[in-house]
Specification:
single chain, alpha+beta, elongated
């Protein structure tokens, strides 16, 4: 997993860090108060990294409140969310070009944008300064079935809509793959560097 790779990277490169730097990688349930109590006993921390966890949390506000509480006054909390602007725009264009009613995708986009804005509002309750870093991701597909799987994963609550449109999607992507040999999907992640 990325977390294990990150832990290995930290271990291999800790010699390059300032002498006296202590790094702890914790694999615990961050929705349990006992986890935060344990973390807090060893703190406060100058840096807390929690990447790719937001979509798994049931109570993101309590999580952010706990993360803020274990930071030093000048500490940074690094947290990421998915910015779907690029990819959602891509799929809306695909649906339009393939002759598919995209109303479900437009509603889903509104929901995602609202979650993003709501998330920023919650972050600002616990952190005085937030700096966003947007990293672009590019996915290259040469296999039709992988593309279809991607659209199902992108719209997990709209499987019926995708199933109803799958024939048109397959025809559309088959023509693109025959012409270009690949389909490129651009996406991005936003990393929020949050300061107390």
């Amino acid at each position: 997993s990325w977390a294990e790779d990150f832990e290995k990277y930290l271990e291999e490169n800790k010699g390059a860090l300032k002498q006296g730097t202590d790094i702890q990688v914790i694999y615990e349930d961050v929705e349990e108060q006992a986890t935060w109590d344990s973390i807090n006993k060893q703190g406060p921390y100058s840096l807390v990294v929690a990447h790719y966890v937001g979509s798994f949390l049931k109570d993101i506000e309590t999580f952010l409140q706990n993360a803020s509480a274990v930071l030093k006054e000048d500490g940074m909390f690094s947290f990421n969310t998915y910015s779907s602007d690029d990819e959602l725009s891509f799929w809306l264009e695909v649906f339009e070009n393939a002759g598919i009613n995209a109303s479900f995708a437009k509603e889903y986009a509104k929901t995602i944008y609202k979650k993003y804005e709501d998330g920023k509002a919650v972050l600002s309750k616990y952190f005085s300064r937030i700096e966003e870093v947007k990293l672009l991701n590019t996915f290259r597909y040469t296999d039709l079935n992988e593309l279809i799987d991607r659209v199902y994963r992108r719209y997990p609550y709209h499987k019926k809509n995708i199933t109803d449109a799958e024939v048109k999607l397959r025809e559309y992507f088959e023509s693109i793959l025959q012409k270009n040999g690949e389909v490129i999907i651009k996406s991005s992640s936003i990393f929020s560097h949050c300061y107390k």
